[in-house]
Structures are given as C-alpha cells and as structure tokens.
Amino acid sequence: MTFARVSGTALAAALAGMLGLGAAGAETLRLSHNTGDTTTWHQGAEKFGELLAERTDGALDVRVFPNAQLSGGDQMRQAEMVGRGALDLVVTSAINVTPLVPEMAVFSLPYLYANYEQVDATTQGAPGEMLADILLDKGIVVLAWGENGFREVTNNVRPIRSPEDMRGLNMRVAGPMYIDVMNALGANPQQMQWGETMSALQQGVVDGQENPIGAVIIPQQVYEVQKHLTAWHYSYDPIFLGISKAKWDSYDADMQAILREAAQDAMAYQREITREGTAQGIAFLREQGMEVYEPSADELAAFRTATQPAFDQWAERVGPEIVGAFQDAISAA
Ligand code: X2X
Fold first, then answer.
1. Ligand 1 atom having least distance to the Cα of 194
2. Is the C-beta atom of 122 inside 6 A of ligand 1?
3. How does pLDDT run across 117-175, given as a tens digit for each residue?
4. Is 300 exposed, middle or buried (0-12, 13-18, 19+ CB in 10 A)?
5. How far is the CA of 194 from the centre of ligand 1 (A)?
6. Which atom of ligand 1 is nearest to the CA of 173?
7. Do 121 and 271 touch, CB atoms closer than 8 A?
C-alpha cells in the first residue's frame, strides 16, 4: 500500500491508534498477550474489548497485540511493564509472572489439582484473591482469571508412558519452575520464548514442549511439528486479565465496575471455549496424526512421585500460608 492510496480517514485512524486515541474521543487501551492471534487467550481479549466498547458506548476501545509484540517478544516482561504503567492491559499466564512474583508458581505446582472443580475453587475463590493482592503490590490489578489449562507434554522422539521415558529429552519450557520439574524427571530443560518455540521444534533444536491442548496446542497447530502427546495433566496454568494500577486509578467507581464485569464475562467465555476445545482435543489430535497416550491412574501416580522434589522446592518458595490456603480450598471442592 503506497502512502498516496491511504485515505484521509484511514490515516487519521492510524495516527489516532498510535497516539492512543480511538474514534471520536474514545480512549484506546493497549492489551498485550504472548500467544498467537488464533488462541483462546486472543479470543478472550477480543471479547473483553467488544464488551467494553458496548458497555461504555465506545468510550473505551481495546487494541489487542498478540505474540508479546509490545515487550519485544519477551513474555516474562509483560507483567513488569503493566506494573509500571508501560502497558495498560495484559492477558498472561501465571508461570510468566513468577520472575516478578514467585508466589504465582503456586497454581502450577505439579499435580496440585485433579480436576476443574478444584481449579475453580482456587481461581474463582479466596486463594485467587490472595494472589491478586500480591499482584496489586506490584502495580497490577487482576480483573478476572481465565484459563490456559492443564499442560500436556509433546515430543518427537518416543511416547512418554513413565518418568523414565523423559530421560535425556531436550524440552522447551516457559519458566523457572518447569526447569526444576524437568530436571526432576531427568530431561534437559531449556527456557525459551513461546514465540520461538514452533521453529525450534520444527528444526529439532528441542525434542519437545508442554502446553495445554485447548488454549495453545490446537490453535497454534503444535500437532504439525510434534508426533507424540501424553495427557499427563502435570501442571495447571491459569491466565488472568490485568490492568495497570495507574490506569485503574484514573477511572471512577462506575467505570471500574464496568471494566471488572466486562473482564469477568470475557474470561468466563474464555474458560468455556478453552474447556470445549480441550474436551474435543484428543480426538482431533489423533485425526491429525498425533499419537496420543492417556496414562492410567498408576502411571499418573508415578509421574507425581517423580516430580515431588520440584513440588517441595517450590512450595517452600511460595510459602506455607499460600500453599495451605490452596490445599484447603482444593480438599473442600
Ligand atoms: O509459553 C508458553 O508455554 C505459554 C504460551 O503456555 C505461556 O505463556 C506460559
């Protein structure tokens, strides 16, 4: 497109977007997330924008930037940027925030949760609020919790049926705790941006990775570059929609209520489509030619035992008060 062919209106809109101004005096908020534009993270973020525009008569407009574009491709940096007001909004997963807030690792402790009821009892209950309070101290207001999901392992070398099968595999991981989990299993973990992972898998730089089926593996077509998947449910990863405290404080109570409700509704939608995609996911992946292994209860117990050292190490880092609150909510669910 040459400059001369851009209409005056389009140019004005483009300039307004760059300046953070939307149509006719609307305020444009920039939302960053670190997956592609086909994921349920992206759909949840877009839904938030739609609801917000509707409910504010267009006064607030959300622009969604996928693939961690606004943080130079660094998925871990987004939270810190929202915290100091360099980003307005973020959708990110718990594990990405652990460098800033190590307590966020609590959600993803290996084999903490056995099912979605237990998950919801924490993310939608008092334990989730405990973490939201800690994030608030870092300048991030959590508006709602959504879902990345139970993370499943894929690789191109062999089917994973036991902890022994993980030995020596070169595994891409997102964040710090997963390095310790992979080490406990005898794998060779390598921390890597999600944005670089598909090509690393394709080129054989790493053998495998782990991610949730409905939110990431299917929408990002990981099945195109990976042969084996084991549904070992070893770690749960929530996402959240957060806003910078500086931005939040610029609104009155009525606008804050609209923001929170739109976020709650958008993340409820996001959880729903993620769970639907996950429920149909294994059949779909088999159709695509993946070899999917579903471990028995005994086999799952073996993975749990093998990852226990990483659980213990990170439970200590998170602290007994928070871990205890999670475990109480889980046993009551
Ligand atoms: O990087 C990943 O694996 C992803 C997309 O799940 C997260 O952002 C943690």
1. 1
2. no
3. 999 999 999 999 999 999 999 999 999 999 999 999 999 999 999 999 999 999 999 98
4. middle
5. 6
6. 3
7. no
> In ligand 1, which atom is closest to the CA atom of 92?
8
Asked if residue 1 is part of any domain, the answer here is: no
Which residue, judged by its Cα, is nearest atom 3 of ligand 1?
A: 174
Kindly report, residue by residue over 8-50, the tens digit of the pLDDT. 444 544 555 555 554 567 999 999 999 999 999 999 999 999 9
Residue 10 counted as domain residue:
no
User: Model confidence over 209-226: pLDDT tens digits?
Assistant: 999 999 999 999 999 999
> Model confidence over 166-210: pLDDT tens digits?
999 999 999 899 999 999 999 999 999 999 999 999 999 999 999
Ligand 1 center to residue 288 CA distance, Å?
22
Q: Looking at the domain assignment, is residue 11 inside a domain?
A: no
The question of ipTM being above 0.90 is answered as yes
For ligand 1, atom 1, the nearest C-alpha belongs to 194
Question: Which SS3 state, helix, strand or coil, does residue 276 take?
Answer: helix
Domains identified in the chain, total number: 1
Could you list the residue range(s) of the whole structural domain that residue 246 is in? 17-332
E strands of the chain, at which residues? 27-33, 60-65, 89-93, 140-155, 170-173, 188-191, 208-212, 228-244, 291-293
Q: How far is the CA of 12 from the centre of ligand 1 (A)?
A: 36
How far is the C-alpha of 310 from the C-alpha of 41, rounded, in Å? 28
